Amino acid sequence: MRDEATPIIDTSITDDSQRLAFIDGMSRVATSVTLVTTDGPAGRFGLTVSSMASVTADPPTLLVCVNRRNPMDAAIRSNGVFAVNALRADQRWVAETFAGRPRKGNPYDFQSGSWRLENTGAPLLIGAVAWFDCVLIAAHHVGTHTIAIGRVVGTGVEAGTPLIYGRRSFGELVQLPTSSPTSQELPDPVWDEPDW
């Protein structure tokens, strides 16, 4: 594994209004909701993240972004393994638990789900629409976050609709008609309320 730090960036060149505009713009980009887990000598950790992406299929590789202040960052780098669990639409409560904001119970509590282990020993959530078991191959520090790149050594899928997040709220996919629909045939927008 390679761990590279970027040079210190002078944040004074980014004014507050540009930063706030960026955050608002990114809140409007819908993403899948994933639960990243790890287990090993540094301990068992889980964290809800929306910054997950495929890197390449040859060989299967993906990335996740984790805030460097979160203990998950050091745990992934120390354990050398992690799993990405793509949550099902009815698993919002799991997302909230591992985001540190459970409606009931304790934050980051693995009792909030049922788990299994595959190749790396990182916990895989039973019922997730997809899971990816990964070995860490690189970690890059960029600003406040670490980009953890993992070689996928196991993948699984289950039935269900993925949980998505956009405009600061959870939602699920609605399939649009394949023909040119009239306005009466379109489903109601999921995020039609202002988010102020």
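[next item in queue]
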Amino acid sequence: MKSRLIKAQNQRVERISTSTLVIGIDIAKEKHAAQAINFRGIVLTNRPIMFSNDHVGFEYLISSIRKLQKMHSLNDVVVGMESTGHYWFNIANWLMKQGVSVVLVNPMTTKRNKENRDNSPSKNDPKDALVIADAVSRGFYTPFSPKEEAFRRLREIRFEFKSMFSLLMKKPQKKCYSSCRIIDT
């Protein structure tokens, strides 16, 4: 079984070639942070790409990606992000519609690899984006496949239900004691 997992990871690593631009995005509620690296993990931007979680921000990201591709003569793009919460849905689906390959990185992978870059466990959005990009370049990702709208909505409803259920369970409940009668025959 291990050899099958290793083979699958090797295939993901081989997908990242010398002509691949790897983008890592740290997802947030209002403003996302992105970092760009090449296949070796060399950072290609002086500053992180900060963009808003709306159509204007997405357009800014794609124009930044195209500029970086042209500047560094890179033909392929892979964008990695964590699949936490629900804020990543819009950007992931929008990028797929633009023809950009999107992959998902496990949040635990990001958490465990924070210190690899600078020997510091500190957390900030640009650093997290860089850690995500590194994880993608090393093959620690899952390909994203957009689901139909109905499945996406079901996932959102499930999330809302779980949230409401946990709120209900946190409220103090009055204990109700019922009496039991044993009937002899």
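[queue empty]
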